[in-house]
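Crash report, auto-generated. Payload:
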Amino acid sequence: MTLWTKLRPYGMVAPAIIVFSLFFIYPIFYMIYLSMFDWNFVSPTKTFVGLQNFRDLLAEEDFRKVLSNTTIYTVLTVTLTTGLALLLALWLNKKSLFHGFVQGAIFSPHIISLVSISLLWSWLMDPEYGLLNWVIGLAGFDKLQWLSHPSTALVSLVMVAVWKGLGYNALVFIAGLQSIPADIYEAASLDRSKPWTTFTKLILPMLSPTIFFLVIINMIGSFQVFETIAIMTQGGPINSTNTLVYYIYEYGFRFFKIGYASAAGVILLVIVGILTIIYFKLLSNRVHYR
Amino acid sequence: MAKIELRNISKKFKDDTVIQNLNLTIKDGSFTVLVGPSGCGKSTTLRMVAGLEQQSGGDIWIDDKCVNDTPPGLRDVAMVFQNYALYPTMSVRGNIEFGLKNRGVAKADRDKLVKDISEIVGLAPYLDKKPQSLSGGQRQRVALARAMVKQPKVFILDEPLSNLDAKLRGQMRTELIQLHKRLGTTFVYVTHDQVEAMSMGDEIVVMNKGVIQQADSPMKLYNDPENLFTAEFIGTPAMNTMNMKDVQGLDIQTSVSIGFMGFRPEQALLNAGPEARGHVIEGEIVTRESLGAEQIYQIRARGGVFFVKTFLAPLETADRVKVTIPYEHLFYFGLGGERLRSGIEAGARQLVAAGGV
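Recovered output after restart:
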């Protein structure tokens, strides 16, 4: 074996490794390093404070509120998106012009930039002149404050996220449903299986890899929600929509407390890491039937 | 046990008529094989019997009940699918007892039935495994067990052996024949493979383009084909047929017009002596397949290419051969391919016939 044949594989993977290290590995470790300092981004001196940033964070009332906001937002978004998408997919899993059109229509929000969507929904949800309140008014109900009231703001954001994610989720579900061979349904019908039994005993278990994939993708996405909040609410009113990533952004790039923001980043990293580990454990132990 | 009757069945897919006015009676307790080239409508027919496909017209009767509007599960029919269609998320036991659970069979009875069936098909050690960890043959057995456990009136098998390798296929073939004997239930079996059809069926329905060509016992099909299609479909190799225009040296006394002449490869004699009376074709051997006990020669003559099969004879090495087909083994078909059975007298054409009748 010549030196060249030994080195060649490393040469081949080098570009990927370099990019990955530079933009993923290095920032992660630098963030962990920064989380133990007090620094404002510009001053030449960084003060080492150890775990003080973490202690401050966990003692902070706002941070606990942010964590609970993020959790509520994530749980609502994930369950609603996945659940509704599954129902939609079951309905759309037919080949007709109409079904194709509906599928295209609900998918379209997925390709629109989040910034446009956020602006659009800000108008729709305007308490005075918004379309939503106009419709509610026509129906004879009281107007809602949507984004302007602490009790409805977070749910309004969930609504936007579900609206945006529904089409993509439904599409993945439809693909999952179509990968179930038709003769399975036929065998079930010959076995006198009722529709509900077929759904719970056959379709749902066979879709479980798809469900888990979507749940984890949606969860990680929701935990990192940022654009809609930055544009529509800026974390308000009264911190009711402030979430983890927006919190990190504010402390890092508005208050320039980079050490403190990094500590919050580390906590986000840990949460997402735990979710991913749970996901792969479940996937390998339970849902991987193939 | 049940008799199945198809009356004036037709099936259209959109504007495409696949089957028109099909009439067929499947005898009670028979092993009926529907055979034909792909796209001939045999699977569609089968699926209509099972209720997985709704016929566009006509009636289907199972025993004395018209099942046109009976859903598949209530027809008392069990089916084995080509790809087995096992439930991948259930264990072998789960697969077998799913139908029983849906019928509300009590747990104790279920366990007993599953145990009995799994012993019959040799699956007892695998009951708690998932189908994907089983081999092709074992999956096939699960599919069979799942069908058998419901004790249906009719078994429907849609090309169940086509995914198995040749050796296993032969083995499963005999097992299915034994199974049929043992259960005595009506079996309806679909295949495109005439060897499978001939070896398994006691009643064979040859189909082409949605039309039944002939429904008969295997030997009847072989010895007495009704038309050119059946003749050319059955046999290994199938019957040699020639356009009458290309046949030379055959003197035929008949009042009907003959379109085609045919003979079985195994009834032709290679380089027979002068005492053999029959139609003689001279040709050149193109290929030789020697399978041990039998040899198959492909021979090119002026009238076209045909096959000759010999048994337990030494391999013919000469390039040019004389093939003799006894007159009584010649088959004749009309211009439309229908079999001509009577009124045909054949003999060698007299070369010195100048000034004859």
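Post-recovery validation: Chain A has one domain: 52-286.
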